[in-house]
Amino acid sequence: MRSWCKNLFACLAVMGLPALATEAPPLRLACELAEEGDHAAAALEFRRLALAAERPADCGGLAWAAAYEYGRADAWPTAEKMLDCAENADPSLELPALLLRAESAAAQLQPEAADFYFQAARGNRAAPDDLRRYAARRSAALLAGMQQTDAAQAALAGAPGEHTEARQALEEYAAGRDKKPLLGGFLGIIPGLGYAYAGEYANAARSLILNGLFIFGMVNTAQHDEWGAFAVITFFEFTWYSGSIYGGLDATHRYNRQRLEACQDRIIGGAGFKPDWQRLPLVILQFEF
Description:
Helices cover 70% and strands 5% of the residues. By secondary structure, it is mainly alpha-helical.
């Protein structure tokens, strides 16, 4: 089920919607670029419009839109600079700026910083319920990644809305167990067993068969005094055998990562947000759950 909610973050210097509608800068090109997925070009266009805007409120909203598009283009350091410009021009954009700062930190693999920003957003009682709900889910997913499942449950408990699926995902993740990488590598001494320990049975069978064939080739060539062929086969068998040990180690890491990502996907549940392009330079966020 999808519910779209529009939450208005009005600018400090608002002079009425009719005035904004008539005085707003030409946004058509920037919005079309954003909707077509050309995020880098859209960001540049929004940035140009922000620099040309005469009112601080317009400058702030357009700078935020530029930051949003820079983020979608995976240019997060530049997005953060635009967020500084947006908040300097219009401090009332604090909440939407917090969301983008959190997304930036998460994208740059800084989960503690991302959680800090999401906590600030969800803890703001003046924030709309959907914003707090979204921030709580993102925060819970980050906390799960830091193995803080109790804190993740607490984040969901303090947020508006139902979070049944997210709570269940956390409970199942906490009840499960990660595989031990060192044990996976040790079991890999027996070809394929490390893969089997991590649940990768196809890789286990392939490792067992290939190692078995090469070992048979080594024995057969040694029995017939074919030492040149023996040397070549032994070289390749050493590669396959060491691959079994390393593969068992790597497979356990892969298992643990996939288990965590599945939990995080269930917590977030496809939640997201985007601006209403038609209302810029006002920043109106649309949330999807």
